[in-house]
Write a structure and sequence with these properties.
The complex is a heterodimer of chains A (225) and B (550). With 225 residues, chain A is mainly alpha-helical. Chain A has one domain: Four Helix Bundle (Hemerythrin (Met), subunit A) (Up-down Bundle). Chain A contains 6 helices and no strands. In chain A, helix 3 packs antiparallel against helix 6, helix 4 runs antiparallel to helix 5 and helix 5 packs antiparallel against helix 6. The longest helix of chain A has 37 residues. The N terminus of chain A is likely disordered. The longest helix of chain B has 35 residues. Chain B has 17 helices and 2 strands. Chain B has one domain: Cytochrome c oxidase-like, subunit I domain (Cytochrome C Oxidase, Chain A). With 550 residues, chain B is mainly alpha-helical. Classes of the chains: A mainly alpha (225), B mainly alpha (550).
């Protein structure tokens, strides 16, 4: 787009000012995140209900998750939130190279998270914990009086794969968005005056992190001794 | 006063600003997108009506003779799915909201025009999937998709239709998000919250519901899909799952969805009553607050769909009480529309006939809703034709009257042409009479115990069923007439003036049809929405000094 003087302008013609444009875009992403909260909310509701109905089976199933890998992944994601903040910081100051660097770092950390997650999924597959005809479950907890009902434990894995799968899908979309931003940043599209997409994508990324911050204790930590 | 009026006569408008098919399919003009929606959704409405016609013909006789039970199940399911998800929920916001909100608040367009166009495509992908599932043989779960039937037992095309609804839901979210941002951030100078037309307030409340509710039904459909395809049995009792959880999640959206259908129509109603009576809407602020109250309370009453599921009677009592509360803001609106008539200068043009029909039908639909919200009565008439009659009085009586009234009110603004006054009045009367004849007998049938969703019934109920089918025929004629005279008006209709009704509002202060950017210059709003004393709301300040004064 060009204005009357021929210089490139990033102000869309239906807005009256840059301020109005930035405010609109920011409010837009916040409202989108509200819908995301409600979207994940349905699954969290199901989790809460079934966990309270079958606490024993859920605790037994939870023992099959690796706290070590979960913790590493939590650290990776918190780290990626930091790199996103640095990207926004760089964009606001018009630092091109540093913006590209921090966007790239975010992508690397996102991929690392997905790699570890894929490894965990593969492990569950070998253990026969992926719900389906080959599902087998053994209660591996020590010192319990009665082994947990495998069918009830299976519900835990329905929710585990449902919730972490949906979260991983959001990560993949996020990485796609950040790749686009990085290409645009290399081409010098973002300036000190206009860089709305960076904080907008950043807010989305923080939200996806935050979902994991809830998933980690709910799935990995509760009921472990 | 030296301020210029907004309206200047101009030969170019949004309709003749580009003619090719590309100029329509790739447009980001909110007015053109509104027309795209109007075309597709009218088509969907007629598809849904064909199913309704087949249902009514089957019910003409007590025996199941026209279709087999399997086919009947598919007919009422497809009627419900098309009408609810492809017509009632999206149409008024996507057509009138899209066209009018930017104009009414003095903006050039919605905040995100490309997202707006995208929503139309997303919506059509969803609709295409739904129709694909229908042409492949349909589905038979009812529009409510209750598990375990939908997730495990039904052998019909549940998955394709469910994915279609899931996708169409995103179009709804895109539209709602666009409205909220536009109303918050893009109002013209001087357009304060309490100067906004009630139509805009109603869409604001509707958008809140869309944003909070639609994602929940989306994830619920996703869970049903995961159960059907991936065997992630989240509602499967074999793994400790609870089918009732599905109903909770479904109605958490689908009850508020009723308000997604009626609130925009109530917004239209406020505009019609004010414009046709040339009077300020009585208790303007009360109507604003009532819209928001309905949106909020609407989220707290879903349990009244589940009185017979084994839900605890204490929960039932609370849901019953909250349901009664929704009647309060609804009644506030009804009284205020009625009070607006008082000392108004009423003209019985077609939009006014629809506005009057709206009030009458909404009173019947609303009060029977209160009856159904009462625990004891609901258990007695649950899943009978009483329920069918009640929700048709609300959905057709309110949403459809609002849609038709709005179409007749803003048609001159949208197309720049006047339609035939005589035939439009005949059609409005036919629709009103036909509608009551169709659905009032169903209250009686339901009260006598005729269950919904059956293709055959005992002989003693035939008279009332024949009446209902006769009414549906009248209704059908009533709906075919507008298709004829509206199309006729495009070619032969008299050219419309900027303000054919003598109404007050920014949309009546610009030319008919409007120019592509709506306003020559950003207007400054100096009066509240229905200021019939001043006779106008906006001005274009002719000097800097004047701009500072307002």
């Amino acid at each position: 787009m060009s204005d009357s003087t021929g210089a490139t302008t990033r102000l869309a013609h239906w807005y009256r000012s840059y301020e109005e444009q930035t405010e609109s875009v920011t409010l837009g992403i916040w409202l989108f995140l509200v819908t995301e909260v409600m979207f994940f909310g349905g699954l969290f509701m199901a989790y809460t209900l079934y966990r309270s109905l079958n606490p024993e089976a859920f605790a037994a199933a939870s023992h099959h998750l690796s706290i070590f890998l979960g913790t590493v992944n939590t650290a990776v994601l918190i780290g990626s939130s930091f790199t996103v903040v640095m990207a926004v910081w760089s964009a606001e100051r018009g630092k091109q190279k540093s913006l590209v660097f921090w966007l790239g770092a975010t992508i690397v950390l996102g991929l690392a998270f997905l790699g570890i997650k894929a490894n965990e999924y593969a492990h569950k597959w070998h253990e026969g914990l992926v719900p389906g005809p080959d599902f087998v479950f053994h209660d591996t907890r020590e010192g319990v009086h009665a082994a947990a009902d495998p069918n009830r434990a299976r519900m835990f894995f329905h929710l585990y794969f449902g919730m972490t799968g949906l979260h991983a899908l959001h990560m993949i979309i996020g990485i796609g968005v950040f790749l686009t931003l990085m290409v645009n940043a290399i081409r010098g599209k973002y300036t000190r005056q206009w860089h709305d997409p960076i904080p907008v994508a950043g807010l989305y990324w923080h939200f996806v992190d935050l979902v994991w911050i809830f998933l980690f204790p709910l799935l990995y930590l509760i009921g472990r001794h | 006063m030296s301020s210029a009026a907004l309206h200047t006569q101009s030969d170019t408008n949004y309709l003749n600003d580009g003619f090719g098919i590309r100029s329509w399919l790739l447009t980001t003009d909110h007015k053109r997108i509104a027309i795209l929606y109007l075309i597709t959704n009218t088509l969907f409405f007629f598809m849904g009506s064909v199913m309704a016609a087949l249902i009514r013909i089957e019910l003409l006789t007590p025996e199941g003779d026209l279709v087999q039970p399997d086919m009947y199940n598919r007919l009422f399911t497809m009627h419900g799915v098309i009408m609810v998800f492809l017509f009632l929920i999206p149409t008024i916001p996507a057509v009138f909201g899209n066209f009018l909100i930017p104009i009414m608040i003095g903006a050039k367009d919605l905040a995100f025009p490309r997202l707006n166009l995208g929503s139309w495509y997303v919506f059509n992908v969803g609709a295409a999937l739904i129709f694909y599932s229908i042409f492949k043989g349909g589905l038979d779960t009812g529009w409510t998709f209750y598990v375990p039937f939908s997730s495990t037992y039904s052998a019909t095309n549940v998955m394709t239709a469910a994915v279609g609804i899931f996708i169409a839901g995103f179009a709804s979210i895109m539209t709602g998000l666009n409205f909220l941002v536009t109303i918050h951030r893009m109002r013209a100078p001087g357009m304060t919250w309490f100067r906004m037309p009630l139509f805009v307030w109603a869409h604001y409340a509707t958008s809140i519901i869309i944003l909070l509710g639609t994602p929940v039904v989306a994830v619920t459909i996703l869970m049903v899909g995961a159960e059907r395809v991936l065997h992630l049995g989240i509602f499967d009792p074999a793994y400790g799952g609870d089918p009732i959880l599905f109903q909770h999640l479904f109605w958490f959206y689908s009850h508020p969805a009723v308000y997604i259908m009626v609130l925009p129509a109530m917004g239209i109603q406020s505009e019609l009553v004010a414009g046709m009576c040339r009077n300020r809407v009585f208790g303007y602020r009360a109507v604003c607050y009532a819209s928001v109250a309905i949106a909020v309370l609407g989220f707290l009453v879903w349990g009244h769909h589940m009185y017979t599921t084994g839900q605890s009677p204490y929960a039932g009592t609370i849901f019953s009480f909250l349901t009664m509360l929704v009647a309060v803001p609804s009644a506030v609106k009804t009284f205020n529309w009625t009070a607006t008539l008082y000392r108004g200068s009423i003209s019985w043009e077609t939009p006014m006939i629809y506005a009057a029909a709206f009030i009458g039908l909404f009173i019947i639909g609303g009060t029977t809703g209160v009856m159904l919200g009462t625990l004891g009565i609901d258990v007695h008439v649950h899943d009978t034709y009483f329920v069918v009659a009640h929700f048709h009085y609300v959905m057709v009586g309110v949403t459809m009257m609002g849609f038709m009234g709005g179409l007749h009110y803003w048609w001159p603004k949208i197309t720049g042409r006047m339609y035939d006054a005589f035939w439009s009045k005949i059609s409005a009367l036919l629709i009103f009479v036909g509608f009551n004849l169709t659905f009032f007998p169903q209250f009686l049938l339901g009260y006598m115990g005729m269950p919904r969703r059956y293709h055959a019934y005992p002989e003693q109920w035939q008279t009332l069923n024949v009446l209902s089918t006769a009414g549906a025929s009248v209704l059908g004629i009533g709906f075919v007439l507008p298709a004829i005279y509206f199309l006729w008006s495009l070619k032969k209709g008299k050219k419309a003036e900027a303000n054919p009704w003598g109404a007050v509002g920014l949309e009546w202060e610009i030319s008919s049809p409007p120019i592509s950017h709506n306003f020559e210059e950003t207007p400054v709003v100096i009066n509240e929405a229905y200021d019939y004393q001043a006779g106008h709301v906006g001005v274009i300040p002719s000097t800097e000094k004047e701009a500072d004064l307002v």
